[in-house]
Design goal:
Arc Repressor Mutant, subunit A, 6-stranded antiparallel beta sheet, DNA-binding, alpha+beta, binds manganese (II) ion, 42% helix, homodimer, SH3 type barrels, 8 helices, two-stranded antiparallel ribbon
DNA sequence: AATTTTTATTAGACTAATCTAAATACTATA
DNA sequence: TATAGTATTTAGATTAGTCTAATAAAAATT
């Protein structure tokens, strides 16, 4: 059984390696975990002994087969808890992570199974990220920033880049959240501002920066 | 901030001291915590330095003012989570504690406040134990085993003694759970068996042992 | 190709939480 | 009230996870 700390490292390695595609160097992991590089070296050695990561000194680290499954398991729990916090307890987006970081480590297969059921087997979390199934399978869905879609396109908001409190507050104010349907009705040539219709009702103009950070998925 | 382990010790001291009424000796605490007495001595010293317990060597330990509030805070979270597990996720009574022991340590005042609200501000947990409020205030309610109540009495099931799986299964089968209304309609002199009416509907006979372990509170 | 800079690992120390074994204090009983 | 027995504390070790400082390897620059 892995400790909370080991689970957090494994998750960080998984994310930094972009789902296992490339290996992760010690310093970036140290930055991510907010620890000293020396601590990372120690921990990698331990995870390596437990066959959770593939590691060669000075060559970087990556999740092993076992480690990837474990990481996806933690990610699954993290995202399911987020759905719960938003859907049932009305949490704001910026209050989610602190709590989900703790809840993701609760050890009880029954708990997460029942919670998943209680929430109606959600496929995406409130940030639009896909929830792995019990076996670690991910349904990947195309997510494009509004800036990269042509005028006329309609889609569902499935995520946002970044999570600054002020940005999220702005989205709340104009009535955009995960699940909102947006249609791109115009794009201004001179600065890239975009007119979008929200849920078929009102139309607003968003700045290019905002457009760049809202992710749509084919409706 | 206290660690999980410190919180568990504090809760155990609170319980074993019967809410702070008498001091607790090292061995009983060691038994409760399933650790060596030496480990208990170490931990007590630490909690004492943090002013969470009152302690004099060889004289036993008890919760301090601060410690009692902290213990009640953890107990509050434990019991609120139990309500959630039973009411929302349909957990069985015997599956509760393992998970609630973990969930009670999640650090987020907002989480427990919202959860409490989501559950409709419950006053008792599924075992019939009262839930302390945010300030650690407890509403104590008389709980009497059926054996000690006269024929004619009606009341709500607010708890059970013990929690053997087979006993709980029996209660499920006959349709008795927390919140069920029972009326005592007869008591057999020769063996103490009791006839009770369940929720005003059917009447069944329960053995003296069962009667002894079901706790009623004035309706 | 040699040198400098960056990155990563080891050395050694610290705290929390645990253990076993040894020492000490309290309690009960003769 | 001395002694035996029990309860409790201390001594000393261990493991997880962390740190700083020192060393070593790899990469980048001259
Ligand atoms: Mn976490
Ligand atoms: Mn010690
Ligand atoms: Mn606990
Ligand atoms: Mn080391």
């Amino acid at each position: 059984m892995l400790s909370f700390v080991e689970e957090n490292y494994l998750k960080a390695i998984y994310h930094l390696s972009e789902a296992g595609k490339r290996s992760v160097n010690t310093n970036s992991l140290a930055e991510e975990m907010k620890t000293a590089p020396a601590s990372v070296s120690d921990m990698i050695k331990r995870l390596s002994e437990k066959k959770m990561v593939d590691y060669q000194k000075y060559r970087g680290v990556n999740v092993s087969g076992k480690g990837k499954i474990k990481a996806l398991h933690v990610i699954r729990q993290h995202r399911i808890w987020k759905v719960f916090l938003v859907e049932k307890l009305n949490f704001q987006w910026d209050q989610l992570d602190e709590v989900a970081e703790q809840l993701e480590h609760i050890k009880s297969p029954l708990l997460i199974q029942r919670l998943d059921e209680f929430l109606g087997f959600p496929k995406f979390d409130p940030h639009g990220d896909p929830i792995p199934d019990e076996n670690g399978q991910l349904i990947e869905k195309r997510k494009d920033p509004i800036t990269q879609l042509p005028v006329g396109t309609a889609g569902i908001v499935v995520g946002v880049n970044g999570s600054s409190a002020s940005f999220l507050k702005y989205l709340d104010k104009v009535g955009i959240s995960i699940g909102t349907r947006l249609q791109i009705v115009d794009r201004m040539e001179f600065d890239g501002s975009v007119d979008v219709t929200i849920d078929g009702k009102k139309t607003i103009t968003i700045s290019p920066t905002v457009a760049e950070n809202i992710l749509l998925s084919e409706a």
